[in-house]
Amino acid sequence: MAFALHERLKADTVTITELEHCRVLLMNDSQYPWLILVPRYNDLRDLHDLSEDLFAPVMEEIRYVSEVLTKECDAFKINVAALGNMVPQLHIHIIARFEDDAAWPGPVWGVKEPRPYAIDDLKAIKSKLGTAIEGGCKSPE
Q: Domain named HIT: which ranges (predicted)?
């Protein structure tokens, strides 16, 4: 069966790129540089649902994207979370945080209503992050 992205993720994000194991999405909330990695395998709910041979490569993609986001956004801190309470499909949030962001120092969830990117800003951040991510990681053929 072909990989299927959960409808809520489709509605709230835009695709940045595809890595070997994960689709990289951008949360459409301009208050935070916020990426979501979704392992491109169906029927996964939690990290421990990844097979033994997929766990380490997916963790490496999380590590790599976290480093890119830190560098490209000059983040003070990176938050990584796999909650899945609203969306049961396994997905990993990677959020660049700053001491002056809208939710600091608390979590981003439920603090402010999402503020979608303006069209030009969305194009710019997609290009910037997509280029940076693809620059150091081979995308699938």
A: 2-104
- Percent of the chain exceeding pLDDT 90 equals 90
| Contact in structure between 72 and 129 (CB atoms under 8 Å) | yes
Q: Are strands 22-27 and 13-18 parallel, antiparallel or unpaired?
A: antiparallel
Looking at the predicted structure, is the pLDDT value of residue 76 above 50? yes
> Is residue 141 domain-resident?
no
Number of domains observed in the structure of the chain: 1
Lowest mean pLDDT among 61-75, 99-113, 117-131: 99-113
Residue 103 CA: distances (Å) to CA of 37, 54, 113, 126: 22, 33, 11, 23
Tokens representing 93? 């949030």
pLDDT tens column, 46-57: 999 999 999 999
CATH number of the domain that residue 72 is part of: 3.30.428.10
Range of the domain at 60: 7-136
Cis omega before residue 107 (within 30°)?
Answer: no
| Neighbour tally for 121: CB within 10 Å | 11
pLDDT digits (tens, 9 = 90+) for 121-132: 999 999 999 999
